[in-house]
Amino acid sequence: MEELALHMLDLAENSIAAGARRVDIRVTEDPASDRLVLEVRDDGSGMPEEVARRAADPFFTTRQTRPVGLGLALLDQAARMAGGSLRIESEPGVGTTVRAEFQLSHPDRQPLGDVAATLLALAAGHPEIEFSYEHRGADFSTRFDTAEFRRSLGDVAPHSPAAISALRRALAEALRALHRDSRQEVSHGSGNH
Prior knowledge:
Blueprint: H1 4-17, E1 22-30, E2 35-42, H2 49-54, H3 71-81, E3 85-91, E4 95-103, H4 115-125, E5 130-136, E6 141-145, H5 146-153, H6 161-174, H7 176-187
Parallel strand pairs: 1-5
Antiparallel strand pairs: 1-2, 2-4, 3-4, 5-6
C-alpha cells in the first residue's frame, strides 16, 4: 500500500471482519510537533492481549483463509520508515484501536491519497455499518459521518443511484478543506507527497 487511504480501507475492513457496527477514522496533522496520526477505532469483537501484541507480525494471523496477514505489518513498516510507530489497543468484547504515528514532514511519509474513494467504498459497500471520518489540521477541520448522512436521505434507499450520487457530493463537500491542504503540501515541496 502506497497511501494512507488504503491503510484506512484495510483497517476498516479488518474491523468489519471482527463484527464492528461502527468504525471511526481520525487523522490529525500537527505541524508544530511535526506529527501525523492515523487512528481507527471500532466496536468489534476485540482481541486478547497476546493477539493484539502479535497482530503486526506478518507471519501471524487468526484468519483461516490464508497463512499471513500483511495489512498491519505494512502499516507498521510505513510508520517506522517515516519516523513513527504503530500501537494497537484492544479489549475482547469492546473493540480495537489502531494508532499509527508518522513524522509529518518526513520524505518517506506516504501521501494521504484518495480518502473520498475509500470512504465511498466503505459507506456504499457496507450500508449496515456506521463510519465516521474526522481530519484535523492546524488551520482546518473536516468531519463526515454516515449515520448523519443516512438520516439526511430520508426514504431514499442507501444502495440506490440517487443515494450513491448524494454520498459522492457529501464527501466532496466534507473533504474540500483536505484537498486545499493537499495542494499546499505540494507547493511547500515536502518530498513525495
